[in-house]
Specification:
The chain is α/β, with parallel strands linked by helices and 302 residues long. Helix content is 33%, strand content 19%. Strands 3, 4, 5, 6, 7, 8, 9 and 12 form an 8-stranded mixed beta sheet that branches. It has a two-stranded parallel ribbon with strand order 1-2. β1, α1 (32-42) and β2 form a beta-alpha-beta unit. The radius of gyration is 21 Å and the shape is globular.
Length: 302
């Protein structure tokens, strides 16, 4: 008999016993360490309990611990090793776009990559401040970094939910970013997040869309408070004060946000190491600027 559990709810693993376990995509579990630890306590049936982990090798602590464990047998598989079972158009498009890049080495070649020298964020910085549950919030905002165009080849629409706790510290609560959203879709998603989390307002960058951004949001819900922000400095300059908050231990991730964290730890003064657009990062920076920095963050408010 097999039982399914979610990495979103580590406490479900308290109590049940197992003789074998298959842990899929551990690097994307929101509460990876807690869920992993609870799984180990229950893996105690039979003479030789075993487990297998299949995952993208993001360099989070639990993955690095497993790779370094002498009792763990590591097998790596490259995307090209599975070429016979993949669509030729997928291989041509994905390999051409990412081969040789840092993201490609992780996703296509199964390499566990360490932090990038000069990146504004480090894995250790994020990990040290990670928490499982957020405290009571004094304020919550939903921020949007809308793409210029829509479609599967467009940039992601960055949508971030962040809060400032009653203790004065900041929290990344949810990353709802996605590629290929139309203006109506990303506006609907942002409004949904606003209501779901009881947010105070939506903060939207309007460099590209101007008044259209607010208009689309109003079409979904005319009563949602919207603050339009306009970048007066480059992304790196806007991100530096927020990264400093992380260094001071004043920003916490409630669970894990693998794609956002990959962007944070891949962002240097020259941009992203793989030349992609840091849209998740940008949305989070807008939220933290509104919550913690205000005008000092280099934004214009209309």
């Amino acid at each position: 008999m097999a039982t399914l559990y979610s990495g979103e709810e580590p406490d479900q693993l308290r109590g049940p016993q197992h003789g074998a376990a298959w842990a899929d995509e551990v690097a994307k579990w929101r509460y990876a360490q807690d869920a992993w630890d609870q799984l180990q306590f229950g893996l105690r049936l039979g003479e030789r309990p075993v487990q297998i982990v299949t995952t993208t090798p993001r360099p989070i602590p639990i993955i690095k611990q497993l790779v370094a464990d002498p009792l763990c047998h590591v097998t790596k598989g490259r995307t090209l090793d599975n070429a016979a079972n993949l669509a030729p158009t997928f291989l041509k498009k994905i390999v051409a776009r990412y081969e040789g890049t840092r993201l490609g080495r992780q996703e296509l070649d199964a390499e566990v990559l360490e932090d990038i020298p000069g990146a504004l964020w480090s894995r250790a910085m994020i990990e040290a401040a990670r928490i499982a549950k957020a405290p009571d919030m004094a304020r919550i905002v939903v921020s949007i970094d809308p793409p210029i165009t829509a479609g599967e080849d467009s940039d992601e629409c960055g949508i971030s939910v962040c809060g400032r706790g009653v203790n004065g510290e900041a929290f990344v609560i949810e990353d709802m970013s996605e590629r290929g959203l139309s203006p109506q879709q990303w506006a609907r998603r942002a409004v949904m997040a606003y209501h779901k989390h009881g947010a105070d307002r939506i903060v939207a960058e309007v460099n590209q869309g101007g008044d259209m951004v607010e208009t689309v949001i109003r079409m979904i819900d005319a009563n949602v408070p919207v603050r339009k922000v306009h970048a007066t400095r480059g992304k790196y300059k806007r991100a530096e004060p927020v990264a400093a908050l992380y260094e001071q231990g004043r920003v916490h991730h409630v669970g894990a946000f693998p794609q956002l964290e990959d962007q944070l730890c891949g962002y240097t003064v020259d941009g992203m190491a793989d030349d992609s657009s840091p849209d998740r990062l940008d949305a989070m920076v807008w939220a933290m600027t509104d919550l913690m920095l205000g005008e000092a963050g280099g934004i214009g408010i209309f």
